[in-house]
Amino acid sequence: MTSDERCNREELWMAVFGARLTRFMEEQKISVSELSRETGISYSVIRNYMKGRTSPKAFNVYLIAKVLKFSFDDFWDL
């Protein structure tokens, strides 16, 4: 896999994760502030996840999934 392919794959993953996070938050009617408070993840980091700017660490995905009552796999499956 080339460097460009890895970069494109990472960008795709961040965009998909951000879209799913936004959808799951809307379904649970939870705000960024609430999610931040419940998970201990900063507001700005969550916003960056939602906008596809940052790739989440696995533990943060676990924390978010737990609060939003979704399976960890719901975020990872492409």
Account of the protein in words:
The mean pLDDT is about 90. The chain contains five helices and no strands. It is elongated. It starts with a helix and ends with a helix. By secondary structure, it is an all-alpha fold.
The low-confidence parts are: none
The helicity comes to over 70%
Major beta-sheet overview: none
Strand content range? under 5%
Radius of gyration (Å):
12 Å
Write the H/E string, N to C. HHHHH
Please, what is the average pLDDT? 89
Structural class: mainly alpha
Number of H/I helices: 5
Using the alpha-carbon principal axes, give the shape. Answer: elongated
Between the first and last Cα atoms, what is the distance in angstroms? Answer: 18 Å
Number of strands: 0
Topology (elements, then pairings):
Elements: H1 3-28, H2 32-39, H3 43-50, H4 58-68, H5 72-76
Task: Briefly summarize what is shown.
By secondary structure, this protein is mainly alpha-helical. It is built from 5 helices and no strands.
Could you list some keywords that capture this structure?
78 residues; mainly alpha; 5 helices
